[in-house]
Design goal:
Largest sheet: none
Helix content: over 70%
Strand content: under 5%
Distance between the termini: 45 Å
Shape: elongated
Length: about 170
C-alpha cells in the first residue's frame, strides 16, 4: 500500500516536472534568440569599424591586440563573443521552427548555462493546458511511477535474497 502511494507520488512529481518542458523550452528559445541578436549587433559593429579602417575583422582584431594590454583584452573578448555567437546561432538554427516534441529530441541545444539560468530565474510554472503539456505530463508520470516501482522491486528482491538462509552442504 505504501509502495503504491509512493509510486503514485513519484509519478505525480514526474508529471508536474515534465509538463513544464514545453513552456520552459519556449522561454529558453526566446532568450537564446535575444542573445544571438545582441551578439550579432556587437560583431556587426566591429566588422563595420574594421571595414571603415580598410581591414577584415580578423586583421582588425589582430592589430587591436597589438595596441596594448587593454586593447588585447578587448580583442580577446570579441573573439570569445564571436565563438559564443557561432555556437548560440547554431543552437537557435537547430531549434527554430521545432515544436515541443522536437525540442525535447534536440535538448542538447538547450544547454547554454547562462541562458538556462536566466530563463529559470524568470520562469513561472503553470498547469499545462495544451496537448503537448498533457503528453509531457503523462510521460513524466509514467517515468516517475515506473522508476520508483523498479527501484522498490529491486530492493525487495535484494532483501528477500539476503534473508534467505544459505544452503550449505554437509560432508
Amino acid at each position: 500500500m505504501i509502495l503504491r502511494a509512493l509510486a503514485v507520488g513519484a509519478g505525480m512529481m514526474g508529471a508536474i516536472g515534465a509538463s513544464q518542458f514545453p513552456e520552459f523550452s519556449q522561454q529558453y528559445m526566446q532568450r537564446l534568440g535575444g542573445a544571438v541578436d545582441e551578439l550579432d549587433r556587437q560583431i556587426t559593429r566591429y566588422a563595420a569599424d574594421a571595414a571603415e579602417a580598410g581591414m577584415t575583422l580578423p586583421d582588425y582584431l589582430d592589430r587591436l591586440a597589438k595596441e596594448g594590454p587593454l586593447a588585447r583584452t578587448q580583442a580577446q573578448n570579441l573573439i570569445s563573443d564571436m565563438a559564443r555567437y557561432e555556437q548560440l546561432a547554431a543552437d537557435l538554427g537547430a531549434l527554430q521552427g521545432a515544436g515541443p516534441f522536437m525540442r525535447a529530441k534536440l535538448a542538447t541545444h538547450l544547454g547554454d548555462a547562462q541562458i538556462w539560468a536566466r530563463a529559470r530565474e524568470t520562469y513561472k510554472p503553470a498547469v499545462p493546458a495544451t496537448f503537448e503539456g498533457a503528453t509531457f505530463a503523462g510521460t513524466g508520470f509514467v517515468a516517475g511511477w515506473l522508476g520508483l516501482t523498479l527501484i522498490f522491486g529491486f530492493l525487495r528482491r535484494l532483501a528477500l535474497t539476503l534473508r534467505r538462509p544459505s544452503r550449505r552442504r554437509r560432508v
